[in-house]
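re the bet — no i am not wrong, look at it urself. input seq straight from the record:
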Amino acid sequence: MPGYKVETNTLHIGKFDYQVRALSDRQQYSDPDGEAERAGVTAASWPLFGVRWAAGVALAEAMCEIPIEGRRILEVGCGLGLASLVLQRRGADITASDHHPLAGAFLRHNTDLNRLPPIPFCQASWGGPDPGIGRFDLLIGADVLYEYEHPRLLAEFLARHAKPAAQFVMTDAGRGHCGRFSARMQEQGYTRVERRIQFGGGWPPGAGGRILTYDRTGPADGFSGPADSLRPGRPG
């Protein structure tokens, strides 16, 4: 692959093995046409989309059992798209999104590697213009609160793309931004429950990570309606 190095590995998620192409060097950078820079991707953050993160694997495993019938689903910050691959194999109505200009190509390649139908992809910045993808019943993300501004930007993005009755499921690696994000979600009418899990590979250290589930099932901004649940344990 010109400009950057890749590798393909096999991951066992749920009952299936998945072939996943990822970047083989987390320090590399390639943006010959300036596309990543125009999308707001810095040199330091450029390779993050292409890393097989433990939090991404944990989200994919959670998607093996979450209810999908009748739900329109969006993965935000999809990176390699592991969770989207699992949902596509299950026959879900899944769309993937990321602001990195290479995420769509990696997702297509990984979908082809696993002989799955194409997954709709949208290159979308959380703080950018409306990408026109509409609203969703279930939104998911893995370790997406990476920088200080992410809680505000992600909450605003979800406000534009979540249906009145909606659920957001996120794996959190404890980067310190979750409290501010939860406060913004509460303002939008969501309640939160969490479950502590160990992502694997000893990451994150200490108590491990969390699966956070935000539900909006009652009146919110003048709307109401039902939403299914991942049923993830105790309240946070």
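see?? The domain at 52-216 is CATH 3.40.50.150 (Rossmann fold). told u. also The longest strand covers residues 162-172. so pay up
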